[in-house]
Write a structure and sequence with these properties.
Layout: E1 2-6, E2 25-29, E3 37-42, H1 64-75, E4 81-86, H2 92-100, E5 105-108, H3 113-123, E6 128-133, H4 141-149, E7 156-161, E8 164-165, E9 176-179, H5 180-188, H6 193-198, H7 201-204, E10 212-215, H8 234-247, H9 256-265, H10 267-279
Parallel strand pairs: 3-4, 3-6, 4-5, 7-10
Antiparallel strand pairs: 1-2, 6-9, 7-8, 7-9
Length: 282
């Protein structure tokens, strides 16, 4: 059984009914969230380039959100999953999905994703965040595991490619790890709208103010320079869905070697990805 709990933002005059105007709505499973580390997934349906992309059938009847949740629960069952979505009415479908799947939800401002992440963590007692973008169906478990395993104590941990944190690349294989105290510190510095939207950009953009740890990507991305498995528009959706159906097992498992081999045999897929990579800057 799932218990529904409503939290009211004391700075708001809104009531706590389930609606687009509710500042916060989250679901608490019968087992409380005891871990100080958790996945926080940023998700919304209001993308201007492809609305509702994470809730549409993507592969074998599964949505991108289905695939992401399955991967996290299969590979990291010890870590809670928290959904951070918006107050917009269109995202009621995400709340309903989470209710059916016993996933706690925090609803916050659509554009201030930084504050939404802070509040999602705060509400659930989380201090150590593995941040997940919801439009990456090829999130790669070994890369996520490396974030979890890091013992450096750094406020921000990520892979980096050509001086860019992988969260800013088109690969779609990566997550990032950030301490809530670092997000609190960034918020206290009154970041502008750009930094509010992009959550961790202020942190890794100010290495003099935050402790950063860059993981070694080694040769994992050899021959994959134009890889684009993140999804922005219908062309991405079609291309990545085709690759997923060809490369992944019924359980969603894949290897980078299998991915590399498939793309070498189908160069038109890499050409399609390269076009959208040039079209959308990160």
């Amino acid at each position: 059984m799932v218990t529904i709990i409503y939290y009211l933002d004391l700075h708001s005059n809104m009531n706590t009914s389930k609606s687009a105007n509710s500042p916060v709505l989250w679901y608490l499973c019968s087992t409380s969230l005891l871990s100080m580390q958790a996945f926080i997934i940023q998700a919304r349906t209001g993308s201007s380039r492809m609305p509702n992309k994470i809730m549409l059938p993507f592969a074998s009847g599964l949505t991108i959100l289905d695939i992401t949740i399955r991967m996290l629960r299969t590979n990291f069952p010890q870590l809670p999953i928290i959904m951070a979505t918006t107050q917009q009415s269109g995202d009621d479908s995400i709340v309903d999905y989470c209710s059916s799947n016993s996933i706690p939800v925090y609803r916050g401002d659509e554009n201030n994703v930084l504050l939404r992440t802070i509040k999602a963590a705060e509400t659930n007692g989380v201090q150590d965040i593995i941040r997940i973008c919801s439009d990456n169906p090829f999130l790669y478990p070994p890369f996520v595991q490396a974030l979890i395993d890091d013992k450096s104590g750094a406020e921000y941990v990520s892979y980096r490619v050509e001086s860019f944190p992988t969260i800013r690349t088109h690969f779609g294989l990566f997550a990032e790890r950030v301490q809530k105290k670092a997000l609190d510190k960034a918020w206290s510095m009154e970041p502008d709208a750009f930094y509010q939207e992009h959550v961790t950009n202020f942190i890794y953009g100010h290495p003099d103010k935050f402790s950063l740890k860059w993981l070694d990507i080694q040769n994992h991305l050899n021959e994959l320079g134009n890889l684009r498995l993140t999804i922005d528009d219908p062309q991405d959706f079609e291309t990545v869905s085709s690759i997923y159906s060809s490369v992944c097992s019924p359980e969603g498992e894949f290897s980078l070697d299998e991915l590399r081999k498939h793309l070498a045999e189908h160069p038109q897929l890499m050409e399609s990805m390269a076009k959208n990579k040039a079209k959308y800057s990160k």
